[in-house]
Design brief:
The protein contains 15 helices and 14 strands. The protein has 394 residues and is an alpha/beta fold. It has an eight-stranded mixed β-sheet with strand order 4-3-2-1-5-6-7-8, sandwiched between helices. Strands 11-10-9-12-13-14 form a six-stranded parallel β-sheet, sandwiched between helices. Helix 2 crosses helix 3.
Amino acid sequence: MRILISLDQPADSLGGAQQSAVLQAEELARAGHEVLFLAPGPHPGPHAAATVPIPGVGLPGQEYRTGSLTRRAARRVSRQIDARGGVDLVHVQGDYWGAAHALFHARHRGLPVVVTFHNNLAVGLAAVLGPAARLGVPAVTAAVSGAMDHVLGVRRRPALDPWRHLGRIAEQARQVVAPSAHFAADLRAHGVAEEVTVVANGVADRVLDGIGAVPLAERTTFVWSGRLSAEKRPLEFLEAVAAMREPAAVDLYGDGPLREQVAAAVRRLGLEHRVRLRGRVPYEGMLTAIAGAHALVQTSVGFETQGMTVAEAVALGTPVVVCDERIAAELPASARVWQAPERGAQALAAVLDDAAGATAGEHGVRAPGTAFRQSTQTAAMLEVYDAACRATRH
């Protein structure tokens, strides 16, 4: 089977949806299938050769790109997909230009469509827009929704609500997928889709099997990993670290629009001796760092549709501290989890102190478990693909 996976950002850019898609493609290839990416380009990286580029413009100071939302561009992209041998199934994993171009191709070729919703657009847009969210969220949603309908040749009023926009994407799918039960419940509650299959984002088998013995850091160390942006709450995390009683060290990984503010907060709070800003590292390096940490901390609330770094930590046997109770509720019983209150630096600091105290004396190595292995998740996704193909034939 040849599968088109569409994304809103290049496959090799920073972000959970992109990393998830790359891991899916690797495992699908091992199962004998072929993946073609559809994403804004041009963009350098290992998967550039396997990508049909959507005409796009780079965002100033970032690795991200916007994609064109015109019918002319969609026709050109569709011809490029055909020139690469065509595909048997379209898997939409973007919500904007990635969705529009993939759905255009599927409509004009009569292909089955599967949609995975990775992003909570309502929360994410509000966090990015900040004080302008009340007017900005409907405006951005209407602009993208209207442009997508134009590309697809649909005449209707643009959607003002992000959930309604997702619903319009879901209308064209044979199967709708969410990476967690809590986000599937959100999609159903907001009328996006009545039936949603849960297939979690996984962790690469090759890394879990080959990571070897990673000794725990001698000093009690927490890892925080993610995009440095408002919805991830890195600044709130640093405030909590400064309020801790235990002198735990912190390795903070990632990059993003709050990079300078994060560095300034480390200096302002006097944390230079405890917090190391590691920047962005390759996937294997990130998993090795998590495996050697005493705990992984995730501070976002209400935004994560699964929480990939938490899944990675659990797969590696590393304890986790989470602020989002819905993420904590879905972790396997074998996971070591500290649930922090959703808001408040002092309350989070108290939980971090508890985790530091409980793990301070631990040494040696931890063995990866069986949770969240990508091979298991890809096998489940192949069943979804089969269902979509059967529904399309009928």
